[in-house]
């Protein structure tokens, strides 16, 4: 997300204009899929066309895994290393969301409860609702006020529903400080991220930091080594967060009169972040709080207020359409509560076990994948195109098909595919999940071509030394070829 873009800007600064020239040369070798180069492709020609696209010299060091099948007859139309392991990036979310839909159902909701103790305390119990925002805290506060609550002796945050690491230990350090790598706990608020805007000042002065939530300014110590420069100089800023404390490091530059730079970082202590905001919501509703604390509590207490998440179908749509890592990780942990957890069990590990059992029920070969998280941020995830196609085929034949397909981005229309495939034969007829890490590009999903039978496909590229944009362009070229298949030729 934002942090990745900032890192790329710094890389461009160090490499100078060479990379720009290289990218122009590369793009010249790859025809941009568009309406102007639309053609009919006979099934017998498909293999030659795809081979030509992926065997260009600039991809000589890359690994391609591709599987294309007829969705109804399951006939294989093209296969290239489809049974081998690849780092799937966010294509991992297909496994997570399919398992969640199967196990929990489209109408499942996540409940956040407030319980009242005899001593005048309130205990708020989170169950990992990733959609919870300040507005929901205000609603809880209003419910409490309507119950006659005006004073709270102790506001207790019960963050024990999810057990184990709040951040996957295999995630890279630059990811866990960014908003897309935010910690996952039971009391998630505002996606556990803090949004800030950087504004240029007069030349020579540091950039100004403006927090979306003004109270964040009191939570962070900022080491501001940025500067405002002349209008013709490059725009390059980098924000880092200390992994051991609430310290923010800002460096780089913005030209004077440049547009503001908006970014977001992961909060340092998500439980305290929740408590602080909830206390503010209570105060705004006329409820005073003497102190706050963090503890698990007695389930025999009386529930006096509650809020529920949108239905799971909506949560899955956010997960897949916008490739939301936090939502995926929260849903993975929610899967764990289909089983009886024992104390000190890692919730994410139990969720992974439930996921594997569910995928086996779908008919996915358990040896065709190995995953360690629910989002795809980890480079330890390994999935074959064959596993993804098996899953997509099984979902398409299940009662959950319509709901699941509605959670996927549509080419040229929505989410992470909104700006791809525009003005091509793929626009509007491809539903697929994207995936991107450094050196990794993936795209898997469905094609409803009016000139051919419905298709299911998975394309994963690993170990490429080319820019992500170049790999993605070649992947898109392959997908456009698939949309140009014709029956009678």
From TrEMBL:
Keyword Kinase: no
Keyword ATP-binding: no
N-terminal signal peptide: 1-24
InterPro entries, per the entry: Beta-lactam/transpept-like, Peptidase_S13
This protein's UniProt keywords: Carboxypeptidase, Hydrolase, Protease, Signal
Gene Ontology biological process: peptidoglycan metabolic process; proteolysis
GO molecular function list: serine-type carboxypeptidase activity
Domain of life of the native organism: Bacteria
PANTHER family documented for this protein: D-ALANYL-D-ALANINE CARBOXYPEPTIDASE, PENICILLIN-SENSITIVE CARBOXYPEPTIDASE A
Family the entry assigns: Belongs to the peptidase S13 family.
Protein name: D-alanyl-D-alanine carboxypeptidase
UniProt organism field: Nostoc piscinale CENA21
Lineage: Bacteria, Bacillati, Cyanobacteriota, Cyanophyceae, Nostocales
């Amino acid at each position: 997300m934002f942090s990745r873009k900032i890192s790329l800007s710094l890389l461009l600064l160090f490499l100078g204009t060479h990379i720009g020239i290289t990218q122009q040369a590369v793009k010249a070798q790859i025809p941009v899929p568009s309406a102007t180069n639309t053609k009919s492709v006979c099934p017998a020609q498909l293999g030659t066309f795809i081979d030509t696209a992926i065997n260009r010299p600039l991809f000589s060091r890359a690994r391609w895994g591709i599987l294309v099948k007829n969705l109804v007859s399951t006939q294989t139309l093209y296969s290239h290393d489809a049974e081998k392991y690849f780092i799937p990036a966010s294509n991992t979310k297909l496994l997570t969301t399919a398992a969640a839909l199967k196990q929990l159902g489209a109408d499942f909701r996540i409940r956040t409860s407030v319980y009242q103790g005899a001593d005048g305390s309130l205990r708020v119990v989170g169950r990992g609702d990733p959609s919870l925002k300040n507005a929901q805290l205000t609603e809880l506060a209003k419910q409490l006020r309507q119950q006659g609550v005006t004073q709270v002796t102790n506001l207790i945050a019960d963050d024990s529903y999810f057990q184990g690491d709040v951040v996957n230990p295999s995630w890279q350090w630059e990811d866990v400080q960014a908003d897309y790598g935010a910690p996952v706990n039971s009391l998630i608020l505002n996606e556990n991220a803090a949004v800030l805007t950087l504004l240029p000042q007069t030349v020579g002065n540091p950039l100004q930091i403006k927090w979306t939530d003004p109270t964040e300014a009191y939570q962070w110590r900022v080491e501001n080594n940025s500067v405002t420069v002349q209008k013709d100089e490059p725009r390059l800023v980098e924000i880092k967060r200390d992994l051991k404390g609430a310290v923010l490091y800002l460096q780089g530059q913005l030209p004077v009169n440049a547009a503001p730079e908006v970014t977001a970082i992961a909060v340092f202590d998500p439980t305290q972040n929740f408590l602080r905001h909830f206390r503010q919501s209570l105060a705004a509703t006329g409820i005073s709080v003497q102190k706050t604390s963090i503890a698990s509590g007695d389930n025999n207490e009386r529930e006096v207020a509650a809020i529920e998440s949108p239905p799971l179908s909506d949560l899955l749509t956010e997960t897949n359409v916008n490739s939301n890592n936090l939502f995926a990780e929260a849903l993975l942990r929610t899967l764990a509560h289909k089983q009886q957890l024992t104390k000190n069990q890692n919730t994410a590990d139990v969720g992974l076990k439930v996921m594997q059992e569910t995928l086996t029920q779908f008919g996915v070969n358990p040896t065709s994948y190995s995953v360690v998280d629910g989002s795809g941020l980890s480079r330890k995830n390994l999935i074959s195109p064959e596993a993804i196609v098996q899953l997509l085929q099984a979902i398409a034949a299940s009662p959950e098909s319509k709901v699941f397909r509605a959670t996927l981005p549509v080419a040229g229309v929505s989410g992470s595919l909104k700006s791809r495939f525009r003005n091509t034969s793929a626009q509007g007829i491809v539903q697929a999940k994207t995936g991107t890490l450094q050196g990794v590009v993936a795209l898997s999903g469905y094609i409803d071509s009016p000139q051919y039978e419905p298709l299911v496909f998975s394309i994963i590229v690993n170990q490429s030394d080319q820019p992500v944009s170049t790999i993605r362009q070649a992947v898109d070229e392959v997908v456009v070829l698939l949309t140009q298949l014709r029956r009678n030729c």
